[in-house]
Amino acid sequence: MINKVVNNAEEAIQGIQDGMTLMLGGFGLCGIPENTIAALVKKGVKDLTCISNNAGVDDFGIGLMLQKNQLKKMIASYVGENAEFERQLLSGELDVELVPQGTLATRCMAAGYGMPAIFTPAGVGTEVAEGKEVRVFNGKEYLLEEAFDADFAIVKAWKGDTAGNLIYRLTARNFNPIMAMAGKVTIAEVEELVPAGELDPDHIHTPGIFVHRIYKGEKYEKRIEQRTLRS
């Protein structure tokens, strides 16, 4: 069996270089690969294209990479909670591609399935459609969107085994499973790492065939982006 286990985040990100395209799982601050992002910040790689649902907040998650000016382009569906992101966008320092959330998810899924592109009604007749092919199916217009092409996919799971099988917990599943399928190399950090064969096959969300490197993370903050309490 191929040894997929690495000791830490620093080992996991070996091979990530300036100018690469990275997918980062998570939704807001839920289910983000905290340890791997911290290692990328420490390594200082730059000119990255980042594909993620959103850009985190100013002092956590992808926001830490923005602070270090490590991103040249951000592909996301929502960017509303990050003042530094806004500053870089308005100043022209950061190239931004806003993608409808369902389209973002499906372009990830298409990459995982080996499909070159999808057709979607989302964005037809808007700025999103400028310069893109539109075709008609059954009398309705659909926009061609290409599958993503990411050098690395970086995800976070609740539990994994040494064969790379992953289980996510509750809403932290979000974008992680479809991104885990889509990278040329997939890095998974997990809260609990167990020997191969210990996970119930019926509970596995991402089969190990998609995962190339796995390690046990530590000191998870698991911040809540917007805490809402019942009055």
UniProtKB/TrEMBL annotation:
Q: Which SUPFAM superfamilies match?
A: NagB/RpiA/CoA transferase-like
| This protein's record includes keyword Transferase | yes
Q: Which UniProt keywords apply?
A: Transferase
GO molecular function terms attached to this record? transferase activity
Q: What is the lineage of its organism?
A: Bacteria, Pseudomonadati, Bacteroidota, Sphingobacteriia, Sphingobacteriales
Does this UniProt record's set of keywords contain Membrane? no
Family, per entry? Belongs to the 3-oxoacid CoA-transferase subunit A family.
Source organism of the structure: Albibacterium profundi
Q: What is this protein called?
A: CoA transferase subunit A
The source's domain of life comes to: Bacteria
